[in-house]
């Protein structure tokens, strides 16, 4: 049938004729809309691709040709940085912000004016400087299309609430814009401080964005037909509404579209397509431009081999997958940054907890047990390992979804977390349910972070399972390679470790803080011809399919990570059974050719272990004690529990080759390290601010140990020389520091390994033993060790234990000695003509005019146990306590009698008197010096010269204390006298008075030098040999012609073969002056001997002598050798430079060398605990304004690393020397002319 249309109404309806319109069904309409949408998407994608390609091309082109600088939006505080080629390291040329500054909090005030199309605002940004960088004088912040009207930088108000952007002191700065990278730059007048917090305060104006990004205007029409405006910060949805025909009764409704509506619809679709094409192009182009710039930036400054990745915005990868590198920490960027600003007020989101930003580990997790599998490949210079760590969640915290563990310079290839099976009761790392997590590294604080999908449970036990790879450390810390040459001339390699304080993380993932004690089960893989050593004995070995051996070690006692040790070597050993119950195996290891040099250390160790068990009243807890000599070792020794590592010169003694000084060094270092096995290992410090608890006690007890095994060595008297009198000048500087000081960063921790922690620590412990009594002291130590065994303690825990046993408030007394720097000078004067004395105290400074900027809670007052003796009772000391609340104390002083304070110099203070009493003491020395103890004679000389140096005492009195020396036969007073003259010898070395000063020294030592002679006698004891070396050394140094001629002649006879050997105790002297008074031929000959000598103590003597040349070109050559490990071992480089600096000819050569080669030296020793400090001290012995200014300039332009404190001390010491010359040079010159002048 044919189709006929239904008749239509003619009124009120449009006719559907071909000329006026057309009709389509609903289905067709939907199809049409879909086609339009697909067309829009297609055009948008193509536009984006083409725009992105062009934008990428343009961006890459801009990398070589800068665009003109945008000139709009510049406010009164910001100038546009001129367009220029980026030739320097300026940070604004980089597309990425400097990574040393991190924002913490924003305070934002926003004031938009919608009708004016403008807004203004103010922002205060709290930032933290997280680390040192080359950009410490700049701050960069992003801006775009705004006018900054005010911009200032302030230090954060220290009294403000945490995380408050509260400005304090203003930091002067200049500002400018660099529009190309959208930077606003603060150029500061002084550098930022690492760890410091600052506040940026900025006012600005701008107009709303003309595009649909940033802060822009959107409009709509309300119900009244009014156009309304609102500010937006996100895209609005775009909606298209179609009107439907009203014929609801039809199954498929029809749309009537007139010609005019059709044309309008087509136009609308075309406009819509163009709109989406443009938007797509803009965003694609912008993204392509950023990617191109980022790629270029990466190609310029990409990741160096072995370094961890730079931070990205992705938090990590799912644990359980194999990862070649870990991703970096999440940034502060929000995952949902879009949304309108409500009521024109910025809303500050709550800051997520980020425990990896804290230098300290979270305290809610404690390691219980480690299972360590270490597989080193010595020839490939690589190692790999697995570690399973059982941890216990001890308490609730705000970081329950994170686990942090330390790593440094290693590639973690596998990382998982498991909840341990609740049925397991032993401390094993058995696995249970896997806890899914993401992982990332935060390299700034050496963290590997597990971000867990569900929170940890309090009381729960978890297991971390990690696999990793790394290369051996290039420095002498962590896990590193040492080498030696065997008897066949072959170079042999060994793997060894040094972890204290924070380098265990270089060998295995671990909780690397001293309080994080745990037990360890270790397996080490090695070649068949090698041995593996660790803290505990080997319990089994098994051969692998590849022929290598697995050595399994006994489970350890709970211990801190810094005490771990792993060694793979082909060494030999001697052994003994030791201890009160003969239940400890003692072994001394070294290279096979030197095993005959281990007997002395074995004998000393045997005697001292037994003595310490008795002294501490606590048995040694391990079944074995190994002591091993490492050919390359940065410090003297390291007290790893059960496996002590030593420098060769500190463990090996070769009878007939090594000197008495070598013998005493071995005994002292062995005693020191064995003392640590109790004090430091059984009980360890909670944190490194109490490092002195380890080192101070060991540095005191070492004397007790050696005094027990060698009572004829006068060790308790020698304490004055080696520790007390050596630390006094350092602690008399305003740049000193307290024994106990708060530290966090590893660099700051390593600075604590200085003479203050060791020698001052030992000195105040010696003083403490003096006033509580030896027996009560021992009881207190034993009580402390038993109470905190296998745990951690703080200084106050020790004070409380000692105070309990001594029935004394030890803590109140000792806090004044540990919590403030310095020490007092106690001045004793007679009250009129009475029989009463008054004693006062004052902070002693070498330069009394120095401004002490560090405040003290005790106002630099001390609780002083003042001891004193009188003329008729010089061996019967009395004690009077001085406290911090009164200015003076009074006590009886018999008339017409002299008084001597600080009996045996047991107290850590100096004593001064009026001139009459000083004259009486000097006269007593001349009349009968034996009235005083050996220590008191030494202390009188030491106090007198240092009081004169500081301006308290006339120099004629100080020099008068030396008048009696012709009668002195004891080593300690003589050595104190020579050390005291050493300051004058140094500061006058290039002054007119030097000639007369050398005559003074020669006159003092000549008679005794002739008496002692150049040959040791059969019955000469240890201490007499020490005295001979000191006196002959002083005579030669002062230019005594007989002394120099004898030394040079013996050297020539030895070189020519006429003399087969030189007395072992005089070799250092003969070698030194033999080189000093000969030329190139002799130097080359001795250098060959140095290269070919394997005996460590002999090598040390030769190395010292080679620095004695008077030829500058030879000294410069020798300095250059210090940077070549094939010529000078890196462990000895600082010693070589220091020896050259001690030579008057080499003083400035060494200083220039250090300045010119600081980067290389810094790279070698930046992680060492001692080296940079020692180097800085040795090359900065200056006393002129020119030297001071040059030194300051060098310090300003070079990184300090662990020598920061040493640099401050060098500046202050030099300033004090300059002031001394102004005050006393003329006085000393006149005295010398009148008393010894020719």
From TrEMBL:
Q: Where are the membrane-spanning stretches?
A: 29-50, 262-283
Q: Where in the cell is it found?
A: Cell membrane
Q: What Gene3D superfamilies does this protein map onto?
A: 1.25.50.20, 2.60.40.1910, Neutral Protease Domain 2, tricorn interacting facor f3 domain
Could you name the active-site residues? 673
Keyword Transmembrane helix in the entry? The reply is: yes
Q: What's an example of a GO molecular-function annotation for this chain?
A: zinc ion binding
What residues bind Zn(2+), as annotated? 672, 676, 695
Sites marked Transition state stabilizer: 758
Provide ranges: composition bias, Low complexity.
Answer: 324-338
Q: Which residues form the ERAP1-like C-terminal domain?
A: 898-1215
Q: Bias category Polar residues: which stretches?
A: 339-349
According to its UniProt record, which cofactors does this protein need? Zn(2+)
Give all residue intervals belonging to the Peptidase M1 membrane alanine aminopeptidase domain.
600-817
* Main subcellular localisation: membrane
The note on the cofactor says: Binds 1 zinc ion per subunit.
Q: What is any one GO biological process for this UniProt entry?
A: proteolysis
User: What is one Pfam family matched by this protein?
Assistant: Peptidase_M1
- Keywords in alphabetical order: Aminopeptidase, Calcium, Cell membrane, Disulfide bond, Glycoprotein, Hydrolase, Membrane, Metal-binding, Metalloprotease, Protease, Signal-anchor, Transmembrane, Transmembrane helix, Zinc
Its domain of life reads Eukaryota
The region called Disordered is annotated at 61-91, 294-349
Q: Membrane topology per the record?
A: Single-pass type II membrane protein
Q: Summarize the subunit comment.
A: Homodimer; disulfide-linked.
Per the similarity annotation, which family is this?
Belongs to the peptidase M1 family.
UniProt protein name: glutamyl aminopeptidase
Which organism does this sequence originate in?
Pocillopora meandrina
């Amino acid at each position: 049938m044919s189709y006929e249309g239904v008749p239509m109404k003619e009124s009120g309806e449009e006719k559907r004729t071909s000329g006026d319109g057309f009709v389509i069904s609903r289905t067709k309409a939907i199809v049409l809309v879909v086609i339009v949408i697909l067309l829009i998407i297609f055009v948008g994608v193509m536009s984006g691709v083409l725009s992105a390609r062009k934008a990428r091309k343009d961006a890459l082109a801009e990398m070589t040709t800068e665009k003109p600088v945008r000139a709009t939006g510049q406010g009164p505080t910001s100038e546009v940085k001129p367009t220029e080629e980026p030739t320097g390291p300026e940070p604004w040329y980089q597309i990425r912000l400097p990574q040393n500054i991190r924002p913490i909090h924003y305070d934002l005030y926003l004031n938009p004016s919608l009708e004016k199309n403008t807004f203004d605002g103010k922002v205060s940004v709290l930032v933290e400087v997280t680390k040192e960088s080359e950009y410490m004088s700049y701050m960069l912040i992003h801006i775009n299309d705004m006018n900054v009207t005010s911009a200032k930088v302030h230090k954060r108000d220290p009294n403000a609430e945490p995380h408050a952007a509260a400005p304090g002191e203003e930091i002067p700065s200049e500002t400018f814009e660099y529009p190309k990278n959208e930077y606003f730059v603060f150029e500061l007048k002084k550098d930022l401080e690492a760890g410091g917090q600052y506040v940026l305060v900025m006012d600005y104006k701008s107009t709303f964005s003309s595009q649909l990004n940033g802060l822009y205007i959107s409009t709509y029409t309300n119900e009244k037909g009014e156009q309304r405006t609102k500010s937006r910060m996100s895209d609005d949805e775009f909606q298209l509404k179609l009107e439907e025909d009203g014929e609801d009764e039809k199954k498929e409704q029809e749309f009537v579209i007139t010609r005019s509506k059709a044309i309008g619809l087509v136009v609308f679709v075309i406009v819509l397509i163009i709109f989406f094409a443009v938007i797509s192009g803009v965003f694609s182009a912008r993204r392509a431009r950023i990617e191109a710039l980022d790629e270029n930036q990466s190609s310029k400054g990409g990741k160096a081999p072995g370094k961890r990745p730079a931070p990205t915005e992705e938090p990590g990868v799912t644990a359980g997958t194999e990862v070649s590198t870990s991703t970096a920490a999440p940034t502060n960027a929000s995952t949902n940054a879009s949304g309108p600003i409500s009521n024109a007020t910025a809303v500050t989101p709550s800051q997520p907890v980020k425990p990896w930003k804290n230098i300290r580990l979270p305290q809610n997790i404690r390691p219980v047990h480690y299972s360590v599998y270490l597989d080193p490949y010595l020839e490939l210079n690589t190692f790999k390992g697995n570690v399973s760590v059982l941890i216990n969640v001890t308490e609730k915290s705000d970081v329950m979804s994170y686990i942090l563990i330390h790593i440094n310079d290693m590639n973690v290839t596998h990382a998982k977390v498991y909840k341990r099976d609740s049925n397991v009761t032993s401390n094993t790392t058995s696995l249970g349910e896997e806890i899914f997590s993401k992982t990332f590294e935060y390299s700034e604080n050496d963290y590997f972070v597990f971000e867990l999908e569900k929170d940890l449970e309090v009381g729960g036990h978890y297991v971390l399972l990690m696999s990793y790879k790394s290369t051996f450390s290039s420095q002498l810390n962590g896990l590193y390679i040492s080498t030696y040459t065997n008897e066949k001339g072959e170079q042999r390699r060994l793997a060894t470790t040094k972890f204290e304080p924070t380098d265990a993380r270089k060998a295995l993932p671990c909780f690397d803080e001293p309080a994080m004690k745990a037990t360890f089960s270790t397996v080490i893989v090695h070649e068949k011809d090698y041995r593996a050593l660790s803290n505990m004995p080997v319990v089994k070995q098994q051969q692998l399919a590849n022929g290598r051996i697995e050595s399994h070690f006994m489970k350890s006692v709970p211990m801190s990570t810094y005490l771990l040790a792993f060694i793979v070597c082909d060494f030999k050993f001697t052994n003994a059974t030791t201890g009160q119950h003969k239940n400890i195996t003692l072994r001394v290891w070294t290279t096979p050719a030197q095993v005959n040099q281990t007997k002395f250390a074995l004998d000393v160790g045997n005697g001292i272990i037994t003595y310490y068990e008795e002294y501490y009243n606590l048995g040694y807890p391990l079944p074995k004690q190994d002591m091993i000599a490492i050919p390359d070792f940065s410090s003297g020794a390291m007290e790893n529990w059960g496996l002590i590592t030593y420098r060769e010169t500190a463990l090996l003694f070769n009878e007939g080759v090594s000197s008495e000084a070598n013998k005493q060094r071995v005994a002292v270092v062995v005693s020191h390290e064995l003392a640590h096995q109790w004090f430091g290992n059984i009980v360890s410090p909670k944190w490194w601010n109490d490092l002195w608890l380890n080192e101070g006690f060991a540095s005191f007890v070492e004397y007790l140990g050696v005094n027990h095994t060698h009572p004829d060595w006068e060790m308790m008297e020698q304490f004055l020389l080696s520790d007390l009198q050596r630390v006094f000048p350092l602690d008399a500087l305003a740049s000193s520091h307290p024994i106990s000081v708060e530290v966090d960063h590893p660099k700051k921790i390593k600075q604590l390994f200085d003479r203050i922690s060791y020698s001052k620590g030992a000195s105040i412990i010696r003083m403490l033993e003096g006033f509580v009594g030896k027996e009560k002291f021992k009881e207190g130590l034993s009580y402390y060790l038993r109470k905190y065994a296998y745990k951690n303690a703080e200084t106050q825990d020790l004070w409380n234990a000692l105070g309990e046993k001594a029935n004394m408030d030890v803590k109140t007394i000792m806090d004044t000695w540990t919590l403030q720097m310095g020490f007092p000078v106690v001045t004793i004067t007679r009250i009129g003509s009475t029989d009463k004395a008054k004693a006062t105290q004052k902070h002693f400074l070498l330069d009394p005019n120095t401004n002490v900027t560090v405040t003290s809670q005790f106002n630099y007052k001390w609780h002083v146990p003042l001891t004193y003796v009188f003329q008729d009772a010089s061996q019967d000391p009395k004690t009077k306590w001085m406290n911090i609340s009164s200015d003076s104390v009074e006590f009886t002083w018999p008339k017409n009698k002299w008084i001597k304070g600080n009996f045996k110099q047991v107290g850590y203070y100096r004593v001064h008197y009026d001139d009459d009493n000083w004259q009486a003491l000097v006269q007593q020395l001349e009349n009968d010096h034996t009235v005083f103890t050996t220590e008191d004679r030494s202390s009188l000389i030491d106090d007198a010269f240092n009081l004169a140096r500081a301006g308290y005492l006339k120099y004629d009195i100080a020099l008068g204390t030396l008048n009696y020396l012709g009668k002195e036969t004891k080593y300690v007073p003589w050595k104190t006298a020579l050390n005291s003259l050493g300051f004058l010898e140094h500061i006058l070395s290039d002054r007119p008075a030097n000639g007369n000063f050398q005559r003074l020294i020669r006159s003092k030592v000549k008679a005794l030098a002739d008496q002692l002679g150049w040959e040791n006698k059969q019955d000469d004891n240890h201490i007499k040999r020490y005295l001979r070396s000191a006196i002959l050394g002083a005579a030669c140094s002062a230019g005594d012609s007989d002394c120099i001629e004898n030394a040079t002649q013996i050297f020539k006879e030895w070189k020519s073969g006429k003399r087969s050997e030189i007395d072992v105790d005089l070799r250092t002297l003969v070698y030194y002056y033999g080189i000093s008074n000969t030329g190139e031929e002799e130097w080359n000959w001795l250098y060959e001997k140095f290269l070919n000598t394997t005996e460590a103590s002999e090598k040390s003597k030769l190395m010292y002598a080679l620095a004695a040349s008077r030829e500058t070109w030879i000294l410069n050559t020798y300095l250059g050798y210090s940077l070549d490990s094939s010529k000078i071992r890196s462990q000895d480089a600082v010693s070589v430079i220091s020896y050259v600096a001690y030579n008057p000819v080499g003083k400035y050569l060494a200083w220039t060398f250090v300045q010119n080669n600081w980067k290389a030296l810094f790279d070698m020793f930046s992680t060492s605990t001692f080296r940079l400090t020692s180097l800085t001290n040795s090359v900065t012995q200056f006393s002129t304004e020119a030297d001071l200014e040059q030194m300051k300039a060098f310090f300003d332009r070079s990184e300090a690393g662990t020598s920061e404190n040493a640099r401050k001390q060098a500046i202050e010491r030099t300033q004090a020397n300059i002031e001394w010359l102004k005050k006393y040079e003329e006085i000393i010159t006149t005295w010398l002319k009148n008393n010894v002048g020719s």
